[in-house]
Amino acid sequence: MPSFPAAVVSRLPTVGTTIFTTMSRLAQECGAINLSQGFPDFNAGDVLFERVAHWMRAGHNQYAPMAGVPALRGAIAAKVRALYGADYDPELEITVTAGATQALFTAVAALVHPGDEVIVFEPVYDSYVPAIELAGGVVRRARLAAPDYRPDWAAVRALVSPRTRMIMINTPHNPSGTVWLADDLRELAAITAGTGIIVVADEVYEHIVFDGLRHESVARYPDLAQRSVVVSSFGKTYHVTGWKVGYVLAPRELMAEFRKVHQFNVFTVNTPVQLALADYMADSSRYLELAAFYQAKRDTFRAGLARTGFELLPCTGTYFQTARYGAISDAPDTRFVDWLTREVGVAAIPLSAFFGDGHDEKVIRFCFAKRDETLAAAFERLERFC
Asked: What angle do CA 169, 175, 177 make, to 5 degrees?
């Protein structure tokens, strides 16, 4: 049959396959231990799977309400009230999403108009910029610099203009593993006060904060909450990233716009998993104890990496550890992680992938959300070569 291909003009001409897909594929091809992509190699508690099966067998297998099942939205509202002292109406201000990436994309699509400026902090998670560009927005970049990746608020103020529509933040921060402090949220509140700027807060690692620090959700700060869309993830919290279930909090005016897009973007999220998550959330220890669980893994990982030539950078949240490799190699970070995967047998992510201009500080990111035996095997390989 003759082929008559249509002329394709890409909406994202500079975008290729994500670094996460690339490195996970390379790890599989090389038989390397995959510490690149951010997913655990262990399961949630059996109770969660049993509850999913229960609701499936009970016949709850048809469409859920567009915004999410009421039981789950109610459980989310109760959790947010208990942790952050914020009251969100489950009917009008909470929506269950098909993962956090969908939530972020939908928020941008709903609220950014062509020509609007959106400030992001780089190193920036790779889905933010394509979402902004597809909406016709203009990206403005504030740089977080190694080793501590703290925001420079004077630089952020300089980026704000009459066209600034949105500021996208991420704390705890992927890929750096740093956590914003109360002073950072107060600065953000001061910058946005009296403006029409909307904040999109990516808080998917909200329960993974170390060393006695507190997660400073924008929901804690009424002046910020009234202009913010807050995104979180059940996948990160309950070790089920492949389920792709998250949620959004927002004041009703913003949520009404969000849902206009959400209903045509995915419409709703699968019913039995939502009901199971609502049941599972009844035991708050399942998320309240997450910080201690991952802090132990962080400490194990840092102790193992300290026996190599890597320079450990601060890690106060998430399940990622960044490290400089300058004492091991002077290769660009993309070439270094290729060598690390092929020759050492451990896959990591180059931080230059999170910068628009490929800025290379010879820093890479490891994921330590792995079983102890997986981490021990990685240390054995790294110590031989690094």
From this structure: 85
In this structure, the answer to whether residues 182 and 203 fall within a common structural domain is yes
Q: Partners of 347 in the beta sheet?
A: 34
Task: For residues 90 and 283, give the distance between their C-alpha atoms in angstroms, rounded to a whole number.
Answer: 19
pLDDT digits (tens, 9 = 90+) for 107-145: 999 999 999 999 999 999 999 999 999 999 999 999 998
Strands 320-324 and 363-367: antiparallel
Is 0.90 surpassed by the pTM of this model? Answer: yes
d(Cα 53, Cα 247) in Å, to the nearest integer?
Answer: 22
Of 282, 316, 331, which one is at a domain's C-terminal end? 282
d(CA 5, CA 200): 39
pLDDT in tens, 183-217: 999 999 999 999 999 999 999 999 999 999 999 99
Amino acid symbol at 267: F
Q: Which of 262, 282, 302 is the last residue of a domain?
A: 282
Whether 54 is in a domain gets the answer no
Do 76 and 173 fall into the same domain?
yes
Q: Which parts of the chain fold into alpha helices (H)?
A: 19-30, 46-57, 70-84, 100-111, 128-134, 153-159, 182-192, 222-225, 234-238, 252-265, 271-280, 285-288, 290-305, 333-339, 372-385
Residue 30 is assigned to a structural domain of this protein: yes
- Convert the pLDDT of each residue in 274-295 to its tens digit: 999 999 999 999 999 999 999 9
Do 297 and 273 fall within a single domain?
no
Percentage of the residues of the chain whose pLDDT score is greater than 90: 94
Domain housing 244: 59-282
Residues 27 and 175 in one domain: no
Backbone phi, psi, residue 119, to 5°: -90, 130
Pair 65, 193: CB distance under 8 Å: no
Indicate if 214 and 337 belong to the same structural domain: no
